[in-house]
TrEMBL record:
Keywords: Aminotransferase, Pyridoxal phosphate, Transferase
InterPro entries: Aminotransferase_I/II_large, Asp_trans, NHTrfase_class1_PyrdxlP-BS, PyrdxlP-dep_Trfase, PyrdxlP-dep_Trfase_major, PyrdxlP-dep_Trfase_small
One Gene Ontology molecular-function label: transaminase activity
Protein name: Aminotransferase
Obligatory cofactor(s): pyridoxal 5'-phosphate
Claim: Transferase is one of the keywords in the record: yes
UniProt-listed Enzyme Commission number(s): 2.6.1.-
NCBIfam families membership: PRK09257.1
Subunit description: Homodimer.
Similarity section: Belongs to the class-I pyridoxal-phosphate-dependent aminotransferase family.
Gene that produces this protein: aspC
Residue span, Aminotransferase class I/classII large domain: 27-391
PANTHER family: ASPARTATE AMINOTRANSFERASE, ASPARTATE AMINOTRANSFERASE, MITOCHONDRIAL
Length: 396
């Protein structure tokens, strides 16, 4: 049976991560996979996480199953983190399942959408995180794209986006990135979120918000503003969240899939379907990550420590954006890279071509995704000169 299989190409992001690991060049720089790095190039375990883990080691009393929805305290805390004190929560219209990472949340959402409307199309931004498309297609859903990033002007194609979304059939799903758009770093502003929310209501599509970088853009609340505006306006929506980046819990695989329904009874029915989806994929989520997040968010001291650490990660990334812009200008690079300083989160497109990306990898051991997406957090005070000289050279 296996002999009928044809080899598939490696994932563009994870393949790059493996190639970087094998490279022996002491000057190598990893600007590929989206993980936060400190000045030394490490992805440290947050202090708040270490403390929560120490607490868990002492206080964990069982390894028995935790149930389909996972840790219910964690689920409730995630709802507050995402929605604040939104009236949908007060009206008991929100249900959440803890999932294995944000990717697990998206896969659960995909299967849930399929159960709601087997013919639904999921509309994603052009471009989007490459795995979005495979995830939805793997659940048997059709995926279509709507205009989003303006490669030429390094901004948004907002008018084109709205024009396409107006044509989306009722019953389809539109995926939106809450903040720190992956891969472009270009986000909607508040006025634009309002337009999209009104459109969702008028046209009748269901928004699915992917929020994988809450706290990496402006602040925890600011980054959830668009999502909350949608929840103000539409009766039903889905939210896929991740604790990989903001809690630095990448390998613990901790995220959540939340649904907002028009009333509490429908929320219960929808939840039964959501949990049946979970049961049919992985039965129950792992406990560790949720317990860590719940412990942090249950303690005002650990929450404060986490906020401080999150603020530090965000300021470092924003500082690096300014540094990249000024360093490239100092090296005499003719192209204007000021857009890097105006975009959000870990990613931006450098806007360089395939040949230049290949040269960066071969001649300088600088690893960038083939789309020219860079993880800004991979730059540091130590490697900025090397990085800027390399860019200046390949752009000559
Ligand atoms: C990324 O976009 O680099 C991250 O979300 C990691 C991944 O799984 O692709």
């Amino acid at each position: 049976m296996f002999s009928t299989l044809k080899p598939l190409p490696t994932d563009p992001i994870l393949g790059l991560m493996a190639a970087y690991k094998q490279d022996t060049n002491p000057n190598k720089i990893d600007l590929g996979v989206g993980v936060y790095k400190d000045e030394q190039g490490n992805t440290p375990v947050l202090k708040a996480v270490k403390k929560a883990e120490a607490f868990r080691l002492e206080n964990e009393t069982t390894k028995s199953y935790i149930g389909l929805a996972g840790n219910l305290d964690f689920c409730q805390k995630m709802e507050s983190l995402l929605l604040g004190e939104h009236r949908a929560l007060l009206a008991n219209r929100v249900r959440t399942a803890q999932t294995p990472g944000g990717t697990g949340a998206l896969r659960v959402a995909a299967e849930f959408i399929k159960r709601c409307n087997t013919n639904a199309t999921v509309w994603v931004t052009t471009p989007t995180w490459a795995n979005h498309i495979s995830l939805f297609e793997a659940a048997g859903l059709t995926v279509k794209e709507y205009p989003y990033y303006d490669y030429e002007n390094k901004g948004l194609l907002f008018d084109e986006m709205i024009k396409t979304l107006k044509q989306v059939p009722k019953g389809d799903v539109v995926l939106l990135h809450a903040c720190c758009h992956n891969p472009s770093g270009m986000d909607l502003n508040e006025a634009q979120w309002k337009v999209v929310a009104e459109l969702a209501k008028d046209v009748g599509f269901t928004p699915l918000v992917d929020i994988a970088y809450q706290g990496f853009g402006s602040s925890l609340d600011e980054d959830a503003k668009g999502l909350r505006l949608l929840a103000d306006t539409v009766e039903e929506m889905l939210i896929c969240s991740s604790c990989s980046k903001n809690f630095g819990l990448y390998r613990e695989r901790i995220g959540a899939c939340s649904l907002i329904s028009n009333d509490s009874t429908t929320a219960d029915v929808s939840n039964s379907v959501l949990l049946s989806v979970v049961r049919s994929i992985y039965s129950m989520p792992p406990a560790h990550g949720a317990d860590i997040v719940n412990t942090i968010l249950s303690s005002s001291e650990l929450t404060q420590l986490w906020h401080d650490e999150l603020d530090e990660m965000r300021s470092r990334i924003n500082g690096l954006r300014t540094l990249i812009k000024s360093s490239l200008a100092e090296k005499g690079v003719a192209q204007d890279f000021s857009f890097i300083d105006q975009q959000n989160g870990m990613f931006s497109f450098l806007g360089i071509n395939k040949e230049q990306i290949d040269r960066l990898q071969k001649e300088y051991a600088i690893y960038i995704v083939g789309s020219s997406r860079v993880n800004v957090a991979g730059v540091s005070q130590t490697n900025i000169d090397y990085f800027s000289n390399a860019i200046a050279d390949v752009l000559k």
